[in-house]
Amino acid sequence: MQKPTVPKGTRDFGPEQMRKRLFIFDTIRQTFQRFGFQPLETPSMENLTTLTGKYGDEGDQLLFKILNSGDFAGGLTEADLQAGSKKITPKIAEKGLRYDLTVPFARYVVMNRNALTMPFKRYQMQPVWRADRPQKGRYREFYQCDADVVGTDSLLCEAEIVLMIHEVFRNLGVLDFTLKINNRKTLAGIAEVIGEPGQEGLLSVAIDKLDKIGMEKVLDELRERGFSEESIRKLDPLFSFGELDRLQLLNQLKTWLTTSETAQQGIAELEETLQFVDQYGLTDSRIEIDPTLARGLSYYTGAIFEVKANGVSIGSVSGGGRYDNLTGTFGMPGLSGVGISFGVDRIYDVMEELNLFPAGAGQGTRLLLVPFDSAARAVALPLLSQLRASGITAEVYPDLAKVKKMLDYANAKAIPYVVLIGSEEVQTGLLSLKNMVTGEQTKTTASELIQLLRSTSF
RNA sequence: GUGAUUGUAGCUCAGUCGGUUAGAGCGCCGGAUUGUGGUUCCGGAGGUCGCGGGUUCGAGCCCCGUCUUUCACCCCA
């Protein structure tokens, strides 16, 4: 027998998982809306022309392509087949699954440029797909929750992103996290100062691995990529910022990168952003300026953010930054934007590993009505409506089954309360409320019952 | 894309040197108990050993392929 399976790197989410996931989605959505972002959804598939070339060569490889409908191979010639799969792909697939939410958003902005009020703030919570090999904290289908502002280069937006990150993780109960922040202009400045102007891309990928592989190996990689010994020597100060506080760090950066105008601008942006954050009154900030933070995506041009949960070995749970020209490739240059993306699946893994889901997050039905016969059921149904109208999640066992079966059902669904209704309850009008955790059973009226369930969270 | 790794009942896992009819715990179903679950006791169902091929008198076990799981690299949320 062929047992059914789901494709590699994809998962089903059962009821308990889904409730926890919805807790994460709801928490993030609340914050996005509170900050004035408006909802947007885009199609799962985009034209490949929209997607390719936006994520670098590596990214293009990771795109899921969708085979054309109909006789997709009909127009292929012998020469095409000889040319190999890379040449054939555009002839047989003109659509692909979205790789992130930022590029479809940029496409949307360009298509609706005349209708949108600028600055335009949108949030979007949808799955994205990447064709890489699954491993810990990495899936082929996963959800991102993005919030972006386009049409302004105000650093207030960067500051608000910092605030939203703090609010989201605090509301989730993930208190021990680090928000790393840096600026691509500073990185560009470093490349200038060490005598490798324009090479900040290569510099970034290598430096990004610092805390993973250590300084020596980073330097080896730079040598491999053609950086001169002199440049590498000039990079020294970057590794000596260890224990400095924010002010000292910024001053040292300014001194070191004094000859680069770009770097000075990056540092000034960083300072202004942090100043705004202070003015907003953020307390107990988890911000850490990290001059080595690089991030892979090539379209970032200003601030870059990355959030890691401490105490777990799962990659970043959130990341983002400013991009000056994302819409340029779609024929709309000069539109600046900044955004943040929360990775729901990784946040879930972190919260599960650290046991951070609140008891209410996995909670479904709170009360099961157990009528013993049809006369009892006639009492139960109006009561059920009354309970639901009071906002209490309640259900009745649909069959007139044995009491054991119904109580087993309550246990299986982890329903904490049961109301038993038999001939005695029908006659007296009093209900038997059973606490399934303690086993204790009391007589109660309908209104007392509602009051009790409203006043306790579970 | 590179290199490892995993797969036996719904779940977690045993299964000796290749040898008769593949086992356990938990879970599930029924009963003890027609107004009381989570404890106990009794009974029961449930397997193409991931899939395909090969070696062998004989394969869950050995070989090849393939899919899947997990992990590292690359890259990333």
From TrEMBL:
GO annotation, biological process: histidyl-tRNA aminoacylation
Keyword Protein biosynthesis listed? The answer is yes
Q: Which GO terms describe its cellular component?
A: cytoplasm
Q: What is the E.C. number?
A: 6.1.1.21
Q: Which reaction does it catalyse?
A: tRNA(His) + L-histidine + ATP = L-histidyl-tRNA(His) + AMP + diphosphate + H(+)
Q: Please name the top-level EC class of this enzyme.
A: ligase
- Chief location of this protein? cytoplasm
InterPro entries attached to this UniProt entry: aa-tRNA-synth_II, aa-tRNA-synth_II/BPL/LPL, Anticodon-bd, Anticodon-bd_dom_sf, His-tRNA-ligase, HisRS-like_core, HisRS/HisZ, HisRS_anticodon
- The species is Spirosoma endophyticum
Looking at the Swiss-Prot or TrEMBL record, what is one Pfam family this protein matches? tRNA-synt_His
Can you state the subunit structure given in the record?
Homodimer.
Citing just one GO molecular function, the answer is: ATP binding
Cite the binding residues for L-histidine: D100, L101, T102, R130, Q144, D148, R295, Y299, Y300
What PANTHER family does its record include? HISTIDINE--TRNA LIGASE, HISTIDYL-TRNA SYNTHETASE
In the UniProt record, the gene name given for this protein reads hisS
What keywords appear on the UniProt entry?
A: Aminoacyl-tRNA synthetase, ATP-binding, Cytoplasm, Ligase, Nucleotide-binding, Protein biosynthesis
Q: In this protein, which residues make up the domain named Aminoacyl-transfer RNA synthetases class-II family profile?
A: 1-371
Mind telling me which CDD domains this protein's record contains?
HisRS-like_core, HisRS_anticodon
Q: Which PROSITE patterns match?
A: AA_TRNA_LIGASE_II
By what name is this protein known? Histidine--tRNA ligase
Give the residue spans that cross the bilayer.
none
UniProt similarity note: Belongs to the class-II aminoacyl-tRNA synthetase family.
